[in-house]
Specification:
Helix content: 55-70%
Number of strands: 9
Radius of gyration: 30 Å
Largest sheet: 7 strands, mixed
Structural class: alpha/beta
Number of helices: 22
Distance between the termini: 61 Å
Strand order of the largest sheet: 8-7-6-5-3-4-9
Number of domains: 2
């Protein structure tokens, strides 16, 4: 007989499991009424994901079957660990291109070594994502600003499009790099293979029309099947139209290789870049569909789920994956209710892998190029650039700089450039914040910027100053020099300075040391430097004992509000106690 203690222990164990596997919790509380929706959505997702997986294997530079592996196994892992009820994970154009860029340099032209490197970087990506989740580093999803991410994805879209055009046209292009490839392609346009262009271009038009007029239909599957049927029925291989060739059936044979320290270090570096880019773009999809369907997702849980999906892909001999917008949209539009959609899609594709790979051999590569071109066209966000043009010239410049950085230097250097631009932007904003003198606005009951409120009243011999950032090592000189300038510009001699510390969220030892020096400098001039409204959370940056002594040393110069500081100033000058408003940060 189960005791109350046993029941409580079981419940506690379930809570722990569900905390790390929210998808499993959703499946444990599955509602039967969802089943028909999830099955229909899962089959629809499979119809889209399978041909896209085959197509994207070409971006990575591996045989088509590895794209199928990458489309199947991650879905099963995410279904257990993911918190999004709609997200479909799988091959993504940008991620595939990053993987290819990271491996090509040191695969030494050996296909087997290339495959081993691909699996290794996928497993490293998965491990880093899981570790990041356990250390609650989900904030990295916000690390790249939207303008920089827009520029990066726009550059990626252009690189992929230029890479696929030769396959669509039936032209062999050997040049590396975006601009050399464009130049060679332009010089060889007269070598276009017309039967290849006719088939690929015709089905590309069909795919675009289907996407516009019948978005619920699996357009990618339709054109892939049509291309294969055309090859067989019209014997198009005799006309020189290339096909993907034999696709082996059955489950993958696990094969793992250990690399030397230098290669492993390079793979780890590249995996970090894949983690940052794939998780950032994937979380945009997760958040957008969670918002649309009125539920919350946890970025740290998603890190673990994305990590599990990549580990499953690597163990299944696949390449790195992330959240996919197009396939998630299919799941959502078909009324998918839970993570079971991914399981149904994975099972359907697994059955095809086991029993129906033979027809894939006749799929023309020009049709796969058409599928990729239409798929990645959604990556290019011209509307985002137009919006930035209207909003901020500076952020438009950042976005364009990232775009051209990717086109000129490549994918992996492009990631580093995007990170560098993000850091430069953050440092620029934080190192030169706005500074204000505050005055009392009686009708609003508080202290506000005198520039924004000309009717604000300043108290004689008292300067209320706001520095709209946290003073730290790289901007504390701006704080110090700005305050000196405000004191010098005052119309009456300043006796007290009250610094509104409300905007301070971080402090460091460098800033504290220079503020102490400034306090002593002003004291020699007969000016008292005080602070008001400092957050208690600032203490966490310093040792408790030191903080306690520090408070006792300067406690008379720290006030809970600007009102309290002004009252103290008035009392020290034997003035009647004023009825002041509260500080507004």
């Amino acid at each position: 007989m189960r005791t109350h203690h046993d029941t409580a222990s079981l419940a506690g164990f379930q809570q722990k499991v569900f905390r790390f596997a929210p998808g499993l919790e959703a499946l444990a509380h599955y509602q039967p009424s969802w089943l028909s929706h999830d099955v229909a959505a899962g089959l629809s997702v499979a119809a889209v994901a399978l041909p896209i997986g085959v197509a994207y294997s070409d971006l990575v530079g591996v045989p088509a079957v590895y794209g199928i592996y990458s489309a199947i196994f991650p879905l099963l892992a995410y279904a257990l660990f993911g918190s999004s009820r709609q997200l479909i994970v799988g091959p993504d154009a940008a991620t595939c291109l990053i993987v290819a860029a990271s491996l090509a340099a040191f695969a030494e032209g050996d296909p087997d070594r290339y495959l081993s490197l691909m699996v290794a970087v996928t497993l490293l990506t998965g491990a880093l994502l899981v570790i990041a989740g356990f250390f609650r580093l989900g904030f990295i999803a916000n690390f790249l600003s939207q303008p920089i991410l827009t520029g990066y994805l726009n550059g990626t879209a252009l690189i992929i499009m230029v890479g696929q055009l030769p396959k669509l046209l039936g032209i062999n292009v050997d040049a590396g790099g975006f601009f050399p490839k464009v130049a060679e392609l332009a010089s060889k346009l007269d070598q276009t293979h017309l039967p290849t262009l006719a088939l690929g271009g015709g089905l590309l038009v069909v795919l675009v029309v289907l996407k516009k007029l019948a978005p619920s239909l699996p357009g990618a599957l339709i054109v892939v099947v049509a291309g294969g049927v055309a090859v067989v029925a019209l014997n198009l291989q005799n006309l020189g139209i290339a096909v993907i060739g034999t696709v082996p059936s059955g489950l993958p044979t696990p094969h793992f290789t250990l690399f030397d320290a230098s290669t492993s270090a390079t793979l780890l570096r590249d995996a970090v870049g894949i983690v940052l880019m794939s998780f950032t773009s994937g979380m945009l999809t997760v958040k957008s569909f969670a918002t649309k369907n009125h539920y919350d997702v946890d970025a740290n849980e998603e890190l673990i789920a994305f990590g599990a999906a990549n580990l499953a892909s690597g163990l299944g001999q696949g390449f790195a994956v992330t959240g996919t917008g197009s396939r998630t949209a299919v799941s959502d539009s078909m009324g998918g209710k839970s993570q079971l959609v991914g399981i149904v899609a994975a099972v359907a594709m697994l059955l095809i892998l086991l029993f129906l790979t033979s027809p894939l051999a006749f799929v023309p590569t020009t049709v796969l190029a058409a599928v990729i071109l239409v798929s990645v066209s959604g990556l290019f966000n011209f509307g985002g650039l137009r919006e930035l043009f209207a909003i901020s010239q500076r952020e438009l410049a950042l976005s364009l700089a990232t775009l051209f950085g990717v086109l000129i230097f490549g994918m992996l250097p492009g990631i580093l450039l995007a990170i560098g631009l993000s850091l430069i932007w953050l440092l620029r904003v934080g190192s030169n914040p706005s500074q204000e003198i505050l005055g009392e606005v009686t009708e609003l009951g508080g202290f506000y910027s005198i520039d924004q409120h000309p009717n604000a009243t300043q108290i004689p011999h008292l300067l209320v100053y706001r520095f709209n950032a946290s003073p730290v090592f790289f901007n504390v000189d701006v704080f110090r020099d700005g305050l000196r300038a405000k004191i010098a510009a005052a119309t009456e001699p300043v006796e007290w300075v009250v610094v509104d510390a409300g905007p301070f969220n971080v402090l460091d030892a460098t800033a504290l040391g220079k503020i102490d020096d400034l306090r002593a400098e002003l004291s020699d001039r007969g000016i008292v430097l005080t602070f008001a409204g400092a957050k208690s959370g600032l203490k966490k940056f310093f040792k408790a004992e030191w903080t306690k002594n520090r408070i006792s040393e300067v406690g008379n110069f720290n006030f809970p509000t600007i009102e309290a500081a002004v009252t103290s100033f008035s009392e020290r000058n034997s003035s009647p106690k004023p009825n002041r408003g509260e500080s507004h940060e």
